[in-house]
Amino acid sequence: MIASVLPTYNRAPLAFERGEGSWLTTTTGERYLDLGAGIAVNALGHAHPKLVSVLSDQAGKLWHTSNLYEVPNQQKLADLLVANTFADTVFFTNSGTEAAELAIKMARKHFYEKGEKDRIRIISFDGAFHGRSTGAIAMAGSEKMVKGFGPLMPGFTTLAFGDMAALRAEMGADVAAVIIEPIQGEGGIRPVTDAQLKELRAICDEAGALLILDEVQCGMGRTGRLFAHELAGVTPDIMMVAKGIGGGFPLGAVLATEHAASGMAAGSHGSTYGGNPLGCAVGCAVVETIADPAFLGEVNRKSALFRQGLESLVARHPEVFEEVRGVGLILGLKCKLPNSDVVQAGYAQHLLTVPGADNVVRLLPALNIADTDITEALTRLDQAATSLKA
Ligand SMILES: *Cc1c(COP(=O)(O)O)cnc(C)c1O
Question: What InterPro entries is this protein classified in (predicted)?
């Protein structure tokens, strides 16, 4: 008999009841140190006092009206994002997948309204993850994710990750946009180099195509900058954001330049819940907190501390780990043993990590993880690695 919850996940037998900072407590009262943060979602940890207070306060006032009316919290969050990024305009969604859908629509519509109706193709890179909708799986082109769900939406081409020569060869008058994660998350914490990102920008400019960055996982302070592309000094035309921006409340966004968004007139897109008062109240508190240079400075300091410990962990356990990947607090341990074994061994030490592709264990802690919790995490990772050698 099928499970009452559709069995699309192989779940760990852990159920959590409450959380505080980087710690989660199970329904049976056991404490776990959380290095997954709900896959880079709980950017400020669990039950952050400011987020709890902002959400409770808004919950007592107003939950939902509709995008038929002005939504003051939405306006405030859009203004905050515009003030702190390349973007001129923002559309709010409830998830990263919905942001992917709008990114596709916005890019195609841009050229359609300019009279370039055949410019519909979007180029992506393998190992990418852009969400689970039919459009997002067609765009990422992963064999595993598309299997059985065809026919796929046409108009996408997937190239080898970071292959700029292949990209140059593919660019033509039918290419509307190129999409890339500056650091692949699901793909196993695989960054493109700053030089590659600069070249990507140049290739798009030469071909008159738009550059879409998917910063759903690597954005919102994870790299020690508000957004990952700032490290390369390159700006996109369109950017997808979700996960961390809601701190655990479902919230996503598409940020765009005025130029890229020029096709999106009234009536061209919409959302019932996107940009609702609850999500945007929390989003404002999250963005105000993370965009503070002092906060980002702390992310970089914590990253250095964590990374140093991880490098010595890898050196102590060369038969378990191969290398440390990533920047800021979007880190990965490339494993020699199966990554699922490492994640399991972590559970035994009451430590939560997240598997990724390419046999990587992802470490995506709350951005405000305490230094003492970093030390504790390193101890538990060491114990987990030791247990695998026994
Ligand atoms: C998680 C993720 C998505 C999809 O976001 P959802 O909120 O799960 O729909 C898209 N792109 C990247 C890079 C992600 O990590």
Answer: AcOrn/SuccOrn_fam, Aminotrans_3, Aminotrans_3_PPA_site, Class-III_PLP-dep_AT, PyrdxlP-dep_Trfase, PyrdxlP-dep_Trfase_major, PyrdxlP-dep_Trfase_small
Confirm or reject: Cβ of 242 under 6 Å from ligand 1.
Answer: yes
From the DSSP assignment, how many helices (H) and strands (E) are in the chain?
A: 12, 17
Query: Which atom of ligand 1 lies closest to the CA of 95?
Result: 7
- The finding on whether 94 has its CB within 6 A of some atom of ligand 1 is no
Ligand 1 atom with minimal separation from the 100 CA:
10
pTM: 0.98
* Residue of minimum CA distance from atom 11 in ligand 1: 130
Domain covering 16-48+293-389 in this structure, CATH number: 3.90.1150.10
Distance 137 CA to ligand 1 centre (A): 11
Q: Determine if ligand 1 sits within 6 Å of the CB of residue 185.
A: yes
Q: How many CB atoms lie within 10 A of CB 41?
A: 22
pLDDT score, position 143? 87
Ligand 1 contact via 373 beta carbon (within 6 Å): no
Q: Per-residue confidence at 345, pLDDT binned at 50, 70, 90? A: very high
- The mean per-residue pLDDT over the stretch 110-116 comes to 98
Q: Helix (H, G, I), strand (E, B), or coil: what is residue 169?
A: helix
Q: Where in the chain is the domain with CATH 3.40.640.10?
A: 51-290
Distance 181 CA to ligand 1 centre (A): 10
User: Which among 138, 231, 140 has a CA at the least distance from the CA of 186?
Assistant: 140
Cis peptide before 355 (omega within 30 of 0): no
Which amino acid, residue 220? M
Q: How far is the CA of 382 from the centre of ligand 1 (A)?
A: 30
Any binding-site annotation on 97? yes
The CA distance from 105 to 116, in Å, is 14
CATH number of 51-290: 3.40.640.10
Residue limits of CATH 3.90.1150.10 in the chain: 16-48+293-389
